[in-house]
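Fig. S4 source data, part A: sequence.
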Amino acid sequence: MEISNPNIFTETEVPQAELIVSRTDLKGTITYVNDIFAMISGYDEEELIGKSHNIVRHPDMPKSVFKNLWDTLKDKKSWNGYIKNLRKDGGYYWVYADVSGVYKDGKLVEYKSIRSPIDNTIKKLTQEKYDALKKEEESTCRIVTYISTTNLEKVQKYAKESGVQSDSIMNQILEDYLL
């Protein structure tokens, strides 16, 4: 995601009466989404089907949350927890996710995920928890800063030419400068 995205702080609320539903194959490739998933994520259904479910993975999410999810599923158990997802436009939405395997004749054939809205208090507490996990486990943190549009354009141009994300360029600049 480009660091200049004006929607980065825009939250989309999941309506209280709605459930977001998706199914994936065993590798996490999306095979089904309901209309509300497409609407809330900002993608068309056709843009989601055939893509890895991590297309909506927000960078604020600690890797350990997803490791726990997959470890739980491998143990043939259902996983549930709070997830901050990334919208196509760079915004985000929070959900409570319940993920489980789908079995036919005792054989795991796919995964299903049913997600529901959560209240603002839980969002705030979970964001704080996830920020702490990112800092502890990945030595990263969220920051907000301002740079000139000229410098931003230079970073974005260099990132495009190099085939990397803008935040990678910013990290490299800081590492080089602060050494």
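Fig. S4 source data, part B ends here. The mean pLDDT is 92.
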